[in-house]
Design brief:
The radius of gyration is 15 Å and the shape is globular. The longest helix has 17 residues, at about 80-95. It has helices at about 25-35, 45, 60-65, 80-95, 130-140, and strands spanning about 5, 40, 55-60, 75, 100-105, 115-120, 125-130, 145. With about 160 residues, it is of the alpha/beta class. The protein has a 4-stranded parallel β-sheet with strand order 2-1-5-8. It has a two-stranded antiparallel sheet with strand order 3-4. The chain has one domain (about 5-150). It binds iron/sulfur cluster.
Length: about 160
């Protein structure tokens, strides 16, 4: 059966930068969980960042720009790009080890966002774009959906 990579915070794990989670209730989530198909990841924690941690945003270029060396991930105080790169690689390693071809990740996150992310100005402005982990997964052929796109996840099982 196909497994699905999922942002741990969507399953209720308190791993967000502010120490909270963002549990996402949905009948498909319940079904996939019951079948043991969900493989949780938190790229920011897996990359070595603590909980809580300062919020981070990506400079213009977003996740793809980070991999091209054109954009950076920053908090208001420091550059945390290396943590985000390490966490994305850990998520990809886990996906590949499990033969995963699909991911359901938290929208707007600088790691997990798949359609929209903050613009790097820390003014709550959203732009079209994706996070560092999403970009790497997509570069490796994994389909990534935001939680608001769950109905678009192909139902193979
Ligand atoms: Fe959730 Fe992804 Fe942020 Fe971790 S890195 S808290 S899984 S959105």
């Amino acid at each position: 059966m196909e497994q699905i990579l999922i942002s741990a915070c969507l399953l209720g794990a308190p791993v967000r930068y502010d120490g909270r989670s963002c549990p996402f209730g949905n009948s498909r989530i319940s079904l996939w969980k019951a079948k043991g198909l969900l493989v949780p990841v938190c790229p920011e924690m897996d990359g070595g960042l603590p909980v809580p941690r300062p919020p981070a945003e990506i400079t213009p270029g977003g996740g793809p720009g980070v991999w091209e060396g054109l954009a950076r991930v920053k908090t208001r105080e420091s550059d945390v790009t290396d943590f985000f790169i390490r966490g994305a690689q850990a998520a990809l390693d886990k996906a590949l080890a499990c033969g995963i071809r699909m991911a359901l990740l938290k929208q707007k996150s600088p790691s997990c966002g798949s359609c929209r992310i903050y613009d790097g100005s820390f003014t709550r402005v959203l732009v079209d774009g994706m996070g560092v982990t999403t970009a790497l997964l997509r570069q490796n052929g994994i389909l990534v959906f935001g939680e608001d796109q769950i109905d678009e996840v192909p139902f193979y099982y």
